Amino acid sequence: QQQVKQSPQSLIVQKGGISIINCAYENTAFDYFPWYQQFPGKGPALLIAIRPDVSEKKEGRFTISFNKSAKQFSLHIMDSQPGDSATYFCAASNGDYKLSFGAGTTVTVRA
Amino acid sequence: ETGVTQSPTHLIKTRGQQVTLRCSSQSGHNTVSWYQQALGQGPQFIFQYYREEENGRGNFPPRFSGLQFPNYSSELNVNALELDDSALYLCASSPGSDTQYFGPGTRLTVL
After folding, report:
1. Beta-carbon contacts below 8 Å between A and B
2. Position B99 pLDDT exceeds 90
3. Are strands A105-110 and A10-14 parallel, antiparallel or unpaired?
4. Cβ contact (<8 Å) for A103 and B103?
């Protein structure tokens, strides 16, 4: 049973455009929501993370929006660049340091 | 780079064999977690070690076992390999917080 549902499975965006990836969860005990970026043949790299006490967090071109009542959170990649082409995973944990991952979204940025 | 290293990079085994994968945590990190990532899927939590003790386990059979050593390096052992064990095995270390840093993974192929 997947505890974090992620969509879309893949997306294509033009250079300079905005990529948006959505995740939903059921477990209200989750209190930590990170996003990871993974390139082929590499391990996931932590991009940005948020806790439920804030609704938005921005780091550079990456922004997490968090809706606690809807149990949803999303990643926005602004001004998408070809180097952003990768697979992105949302995840969640409830303080026990065990991450539950979404299925991943493959982002392709066309030049 | 996260400072988490894994060995070997790639491994090919046959069904029924046993395998040991190794992980060296980032300096100062006392918690290590192992994840299995099947092709095209998100990582699945196998188990976690904190100060040499198992600190939680995912939905994996007992033939998946682990160790953490006093220097916080770790091993994942899998007995009686099955074809479905073919995956990327990821090690993640943490300084005792939610933030987890992943290594590059070991690609295991079971024939």
Report:
1. 63
2. no
3. parallel
4. no
